[in-house]
């Protein structure tokens, strides 16, 4: 029924005309009647008008009936609001900016939080997917051996599907350039576990993971586009990987998690997938080359049931194969918990809390802006009230103004968020977010943004309204200044802003301290002027390129000779694993040779790094005792190793490790298995090289020479006499001249490796510092605004005081004092909150106490200075008030 | 003594009049209502038009442009099915009200 009325509002002009013509007819008809009764034309006309009863009133009544009062007045208010907002450009721009900042920052962070923590995994039955690894006797998870995987697969009844995955590099030749690609070698059921169907062709079929049938490959959508030009006919064609022909059988869908790197890859992610074929030479229990197994729980099986059964299987294996598995177990973890660890969760929640604090500051800033303006608009409001506007009507008008501002601010904020999300996604280093996280400004995020906008609008609109309402407030104002209640509210808002700003800045300070600490961690090497790159060498079947280890050693010597010959190169070296990457090293089991033999499963762990002797000089590792490896250590001489400081002090406390022997299983080149124990003589002790990320503990490391223990892994490390970035081209050329099918990957300086290893800390610190800096600026602006405003209001009072003899320095002190007083209260509240909240950051801090007194003092000092600055301008203005001018103005 | 139109009663008067005369224009309706009220009603004839608009917005009557007896363009109103239903309901409630008021206003027996 109301709709008839609503529609009529839009037909108003036509209906007005209708009325005119109907009334004209009515008047004419009445006149005709009166004329017929014998009245003169003039009398008839007057009588007709009388009978109708005032044409104006009729039209008025008709129009009232035509309009809907609320709708109509809102339309009026909107036009009025538009004019007001345009007239007060400064206020409008400030409010818009603050709103947009608040909405954009919370929306951006929510989009990340949503993608990582809230959205379900983009896999069918994602909540049933688990990751399986072995658990070492010390409780840490570990890669596992081929026979262990086969045992799990055969003997479990809790998984619907189970598949193994191994990461590696493969060299693609013959497409465009020679290029190294990240490959995941997986068993046939792999894609079934994740429920991924290809966009083109098919994925692996049953039995394709057996030797001889494994020459098939599935491409990621991204690599299909970049390397193969998105050729729709690619399925069925043959490509050369490590000089072996592989048939492309499928391409994965675009934009999937597998395009962003695939399942649980810690470095970069896979670009293509090959079957993992099990060969007899892999079937050793004590060599653990498989990175992970993924499985889907059978329907109705709980995680606990799966864990119980896998525990039982692990225990049986431990008794059957004590040499490799005594004390070892099986770790089954829900996949979602694997990809979102406590660090990432803490980071995101801390960021969410930060933007929430920022949002609060925005709201409070807006509220004080609105309050201040309500007071300065008192004349306008008083005039309107005097002209008969009801209190309700005035409030409605002000609310419409806010709604309009909020709507515009939201639009701006959502626009900013869109740009922010896109920018951040480009800026984020790979691996910071799990590849499953699809961060987009989607409908969920927009809905969130709108919710935030509405809340913001209501918050900043209602605070002043609740404080007594604008019209009341306006009436309660007299020319001497703000009412006590408004002034108190303004002070409270500033106090709140200072407190929140303090907490946020404290969080950032902790993170910055932690990051600075990380960057200054002793890495053991000299970071400057070193460039590194990965050189994938196909050494394992199928596709093994070297007839013998001797041939491989000769190739490495040739590489080193030609790189050394380049101008600007001081030292070059080859290693199985680069520092700070945790990569490509052999976890080993070792013991001191002349002590009682323990089973390999429970020997000491550590890393076995194979290097050319120049490695130590290239990295700048300092020698503690003995000597480095050198040219004397040849394949036919006695096996020698250099150990790191940690190993020396742990294994030989108080004794000289030089000349001691350590037992280590030998590495068999080209085979995924370990040989019998070799007794190595320690010839030197070097400083602890950072093997993994900067925040990780030092591990035991053993260095052996390629000449004595070749292995088919190679990374190049070059120390230059100058900034090494310019050397990349020359090195690539030298390598190309030596071997046209040698791919080069991940060319990075040591400094870049170092900063990449703290990527997520950097990202979080960067974001949090940005947000808290904005928060501090906003709080300062808020404080400045409130003080400047109160000075403007108190001009007359200050003038009188000055006239009565108050010195200008005294007035200055009064205003400054008020600013500082408010700040101190805010800081006190902030310190209490920071003490309570800071421990929540513990998971992301490195070597910094969460209730760090230095950070708090520093932040409090900064805020006090900012507050001083924010109050100084209004205070100076107050001090310079000329009583004569002010008093004459009245 | 001419009476002012009681709030809400004009609607029913208009509806009922349309019920009797069928299709009619504003002037005709006013004339008819005054006729029926036999001079008891003091009606500003103009107030009819907002009322007509209101009734139309409620879908109780509908209107179309037509030609009057004296060959002029005029807007003719007529009842809709909803309007007829409305008359029935309103009539019932009026009768109820009248009966009720009659009971209160009747002089109790025995009173002078």
3D structure, described in words:
The complex is a heterodimer of chains A (890) and B (112). Chain A is an alpha+beta fold. Helix content of chain A is 52%, strand content 15%. Chain A has 28 helices and 23 strands. In chain A, the strands form 3 sheets. In chain A, strands 14, 15, 16, 17, 18, 19, 20 and 21 form an 8-stranded mixed β-sheet that branches. In chain A, strands 3-4-9-6-8-7 form a 6-stranded mixed β-barrel. Chain A has a 4-stranded antiparallel β-sheet with strand order 13-22-12-23. In chain A, strand 3 and strand 4 form a beta hairpin. In chain A, helix 6 (89-118) packs antiparallel against helix 13 and helix 6 crosses helix 16 (443-466). Chain A starts with a helix and ends with a helix. Mean pLDDT of chain A is 85; it is low at 473-482. Chain B has a single domain, classed as Winged helix-like DNA-binding domain superfamily/Winged helix DNA-binding domain (Arc Repressor Mutant, subunit A). Chain B has helices at 9-21, 26-37, 48-57, 81-105; strands at 24-25, 61-67, 73-79. The longest helix of chain B has 25 residues, at 81-105. In chain B, 29% of the residues are buried. Classes of the chains: A alpha+beta (890), B alpha+beta (112). The interface between A and B is medium-sized, with 28 and 22 residues.
